Amino acid sequence: MRTSIEVADIFRAAGPAYRAARAGHLSLDQLKVMSAIETCRTSVMGGHTEACTDCGHWRVAYNSCRNRHCPRCQGAAARTWLAEREADLLPVGYFHVVFTLPAEIADIALQNQAAVYGLLFQAASETMTTIAADPKHLGARIGITAVLHTWGSAMTHHPHIHMIVPGGGLSPDASRWLSSRPAFLLPVRVLGKLFRRLFLARLTALHDAGRLAFYGSMAHLADRRAFLRYLAPVRKKNWVVYAKPPFAGPETVLAYLSRYTHRVAISNSRLIRFNKAGVTFRYKDYRRAGADRQQSMTLAADEFIRRFLLHVLPKGFHCIRHYGLLAGATRKGRLDHVRQLLRVVPPAATDTPVDPPDVRPSCPCCGGHMVVIETFERSSRPRAPPHGIHPTGTITS
């Protein structure tokens, strides 16, 4: 029996009161996420009955909600996505680059998520491709996989972009592969300055076009002069662009991507307690070093839910995007050309679709293989095991 705490437990216990207290103040997307997490893998979602082909043990499994914000549903989605990306990896070093928005801009983003998060992707990717194409630096067309995260470790609002970038790119005439230096891709100070300029220019254009909305304490920013005054100090700040050393190899890149691409604001594994005092969870305090970085925090259940819902993305918003060599339907052709330049044998193609691996847990009694013997619809319950029927479906005497 499951004994660990899950986000779903908190939502089921405190969610109804939270919705009632904030009726009319939660978006439809937030309400849908709450409902999906609360009903995930319950009889409301329907499911199936499994049986062990060896010992005959029966087990009921309820369907997942498959919502991208649900902590329980991201494992399978990440596995599928990673299997598709594995064929795109090149035998070169990969760099991890992070673009972060200042707190003042993050406040604007919270009230204009689709517009500002989209602009974050646009400005960060253009910054990378522009500086990489400059002959003073790499002078090449690079490839980028970018992932949006909107949270810090304590679930506060902290929008930033994680990028995985191959260490090199195609020459302007596509005749050569230009490798970056082993431990250096592009100068982060140059990236930060261009990122700041591109982002602020386009944010101002969004304001001039009437595509930004402001509420509450920020309502005065609807006035253009007030908006420009608000941005003035931000123009003088150093915008944080961080580049980590390259990964050890393609397998390490995949392991990294599996942790970042389908992550949600908090995983169930970080939850410690849930009681009348609130929700206690682990987080990283980046102001500390070493073992002291791992800390615990307790929030009232309402505050925990509020922070979680800060990170619900607008419907249809893509939080994983590809640029340069990795963008578009011609990606495969470009990667094949790069492999030819690198004298690498491309992955073997197959016309036969590969069945997804059976990730169904083995039998808890004997470790045997479990098979599905019955499915049932939403809000239905499974039938009791019929007498005289073997789990494989054959009739026993």
Short description:
The chain is of the alpha+beta class and 397 residues long.
- Counting DSSP H or I runs of 4 or more residues, the number of helices is 10
Order of helices and strands: HHEEHEHHEEEEHHEHEEEHEHE
Let me know the average pLDDT. Answer: 87
Annotation, overall tally of beta strands: 13
Radius of gyration, rounded? 25 Å
Tell me what portion of residues adopts beta-strand conformation.
15-25%
The main pleated sheet reads as: 5 strands, antiparallel
- Residues in helix, %: 25-40%
Widest sheet, order of strands: 8-3-5-4-12
Envelope shape: globular
Distance between the termini: 33 Å
List unreliable stretches of 5+ residues: 351-355, 388-397
Could you describe the 3D structure shown?
With 397 residues, this protein is of the alpha+beta class. The protein contains ten helices and 13 strands. The strands form four sheets. It has a five-stranded antiparallel sheet, sandwiched between helices. α5 crosses α6 (188-208). The radius of gyration is 25 Å and the shape is globular.
Index terms:
single chain, 397 residues, alpha+beta, five-stranded antiparallel sheet, three-stranded antiparallel sheet, 10 helices, disordered C terminus
